[in-house]
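Example complex used in Figure S2.
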Amino acid sequence: GAGVSQTPSNKVTEKGKYVELRCDPISGHTALYWYRQSLGQGPEFLIYFQGTGAADDSGLPNDRFFAVRPEGSVSTLKIQRTERGDSAVYLCASSPGNQETQYFGPGTRLLVL
Amino acid sequence: QKEVEQDPGPLSVPEGAIVSLNCTYSNSAFQYFMWYRQYSRKGPELLMYTYSSGNKEDGRFTAQVDKSSKYISLFIRDSQPSDSATYLCAMSAGAVFGNEKLTFGTGTRLTIIP
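Predicted assembly (227 residues):
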């Protein structure tokens, strides 16, 4: 079956611009996670959705970052007033829940010039 | 200090060798311990996970957890060139596997030389 998909695969933007990154989880998965992976580092947790609601947003670095999942399926990570330090791979993962692992998408590579 | 420490390598070994990868951690609340493999420009994929202390074996892979020392290991036997990837340890504090954020190590880049 289809895995987690993320669009776009690559995004280049200028400092100060607004970007949206999209995640399509595996069908039927109720849990959805966003992580950020900087070069040479492991993924760093940003936010976790259970259904439509954010169950844990403790990893969002500041108020420029926001994520939604309005219908409990597709999720969008939104970054306002991008900064060069936001350049990273943004990974999305989904899980059906209890006793199941998180399945990761290929990521969106964001470059802020 | 990071919650999870992992030697970033890189690590190069000849084909057929035994590989040992390790992580240490500081958060006593971690209950689930995972190893992910990540190929270049791909998302991480789960290799295996262990709950609490103990060993788990899956084919050529063995995971060990020592909660008293806050130390986990992954051993790869009879290493193959296809094992060349970045290996990430990850941990969670949730009571139920799969319902909690993951805390990752830096990742160790491994190359198996044919």
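DSSP finds no helices and eleven strands in chain A. The interface with chain B takes residues 4, 31, 33, 35, 40-45, 48, 50, 56, 58-59, 91, 93, 95-102, 104-107 of chain A (CB under 8 Å).
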